[in-house]
Every structure is written in structure tokens, then in C-alpha cells.
Amino acid sequence: MTDDAPLLGGRYRLGARLGGGGMADVHRAMDTRLQRLVAAKVFRSATDELGRKRFAEEARILAGLSHPGLVTVHDFSADEDELFLIMELVEGGTLADVAETGPMQPEDVADIGGKLADVLAYVHGNDVVHRDVKPTNVLLSNDGRAFLADFGVSRLADAAGRLTDSGMVVGTTTYMAPEQVSGGAVGFPADVYALGLVLLECVTGRVEYPGGPDAAVARLVRSPQVPHGIPARLRRGLLAMLISDPTRRITAEQAGDLLSGRTTEVITPIPAPVVAPPPRVPQQRVQRPPTQSMPTQQPSQQRPVASIAAGVVVIAVVTVLAVVLWPDSSGTPELPAVSGPPGPERLPADLEDLERLVRG
């Protein structure tokens, strides 16, 4: 970085190239106003006024994001001859550098995966899709922190390349989700799938779907091979993140919960089918006959019948008691002669005979 190097945007002095791709180059740069090191991502593609407006809108959205695992956007330019982003400079390497040395420890992969999934969940909550999650976009700082870089840059590149790169497929084929390969809608689930492939590569030490047209189609006919014998939280997370159907794939938030061990199971809710109630059949009213009242007897008519019945019962009970409980010592007692025809008029005489019989 020399003092006579041209200033980007009249403020940023470009230094060594750190990396780049088909759409932009990333340089180490010095912010001459704040005297701090930054990363400058300079886009190559020219664009028209509408494209520059779209680029500026996307850049403002990215600049408004703030997360410990997200590379912060400090500044941007959408001028006609300068299209760039100024971002936080992370000193260190990338996850690709570590993965190239061989399989990583599964516990370390689960820890890094949980943190990256949490970053995805935060940015998805702000309605931003990455669309290019890959090992080179995961930065590992010298103090051990992990950052997910280039969030939303694919959308910026889409805006910047409207004239020259229209119709291009944004993303790296190796880590594309099935819906991206088949030309379907690209949303939050595609980022979750790509992160799953990145973590699977880290734990196995090999790329699941190497680049090329054949490999791109392979994920449509073969599911990723998640190994056994790895920690349960990592295996559960990978299996749920790498489901081919995006509607059944877990969210970034759920992936973070699984990989970090905050939960042991995530079940995607399935709405219960709505069962329509059976049609209501009107019930016919049952015609009941009118209640008929029984004719009541006059007290003068009821009294003689009740008196006769009571008299007969009393006589029968007393007679049995007299015979059983107080037998005559001389043998079977002689009953008095009938005092007359049955009826209420005979009751006094019968009672007198009974008393006389009991007393002996």
C-alpha cells in the first residue's frame, strides 16, 4: 500500500488483493479519514442508472445489519464509474483453508455450524438471502471467531450485472440447493442446505457434490451421505438441513438450536387437516298427545275406602302377633265368633274381641 496509490471514492487507498471472483475483487484498504484498515470489495461490472439504484438500496440494507458473526458493511458507492462496498477487515483465514488440510473434529464442526446458523437466522429475519454460502465465505479470525461474509452480495452483484450478466445463475454449483439446480425459487431454505453441505465437507474431508453439470444434477437423484458415528447433535442437524424438499427443511434458527445442543429434536409442525363439521339435519318435532289429568276423587269418597283397608291391615297384623308372641298356656286359643258382616261397622267389635283375647 503506497501513498501514491489512487483513492477509491476519494477516501480509501487500495492495497493488496485478498481475493475475488467473477464479479468483484476484494482488497485490503486504508480508510484515510478514520485511519483504519478495511476490506474493499470493488465490482467490475458496469451498470445503468436503475442498476446503481438497486445496488444502493441493497447496500443500505446490508449496512443496517449488525451481528457478532457478520462482517459489517461500513460504506458503499453506487457512482457511475465506482461501484464498491467497504467492509470490516477480518484478519485470519477462511474455512476453506482449514478444510483443505483434512477432516475437522466433529465437535468443532458442530460448534462452528451452530454459530453460522445463528448468523443465518438473524439475517433471514431481516429478509436477506445469502445465495452463496461456501467455505471461502466463512472467515476465521486469528482470535478464533467465525464470520459469514458476503451476505446479500449476490443480490448486489445481480443489480450490478444487469446489463452484462443478465440471466446468470448466482451461487457456487458445488453448494447449491436442489431447488437452485432445478431453477426453482431461491429463498432461506437454500442457504440452510448450502450450510449443511459446507459442514458435511468439513467433517468428512471431501466435497459431497464436486463442481460440474453432472454433480449439479446428482443432488436431484441422490441425498447427501451423512456419516454415522459423529455427535448426535451434528448428525441430527445435517440430516434435517439436507432434506431435498425445501418445504420440509428446517429453518436456520432450528439448525442453530440443533447444532449448538440447545435442543435435541426439531419436528417441523404439520398443520392438522381441517375437518368440516357434518351438515346439520333439522330434527322433526315429535307430536306428543296432550297430557290428560286423572279425575280426582272427593275426600268424602276416599275416606271410607281408606278406613276399610286400614282396619283390615291392623286386624291381620295384631292377630298374627297375638298368636305367635303370646300363646295361651292351655294350647291353641279359641277365636271369638265373627261379630258380623265385614265392613267399617264391624271394626269396633273386632278390636274389643282382640283385646279380650290378648288379655286372656
TrEMBL record:
Enzyme class: transferase
Keyword set, alphabetical order: ATP-binding, Kinase, Membrane, Nucleotide-binding, Serine/threonine-protein kinase, Transferase, Transmembrane, Transmembrane helix
CDD domains for the chain: STKc_PknB_like (cd14014)
Listed SMART domains: S_TKc (SM00220)
Gene3D superfamilies: Phosphorylase Kinase, domain 1, Transferase(Phosphotransferase) domain 1
PANTHER family: MITOGEN-ACTIVATED PROTEIN KINASE KINASE KINASE 20-RELATED, SERINE_THREONINE-PROTEIN KINASE NEKL-3
Residues in the signal sequence: none
One GO molecular-function entry: protein serine/threonine kinase activity
Xref: InterPro entries: Kinase-like_dom_sf, Prot_kinase_dom, Protein_kinase_ATP_BS, Ser/Thr_kinase_AS
Pfam families: Pkinase (PF00069)
Domain Protein kinase stretches: 12-267
Binding site for ATP: 41
Region ranges (Disordered): 270-302, 330-360
Chain segments annotated as transmembrane: 305-326
Protein name: non-specific serine/threonine protein kinase
Biased composition (Low complexity): 282-302
EC number: 2.7.11.1
Composition bias type Pro residues, residue spans: 270-281
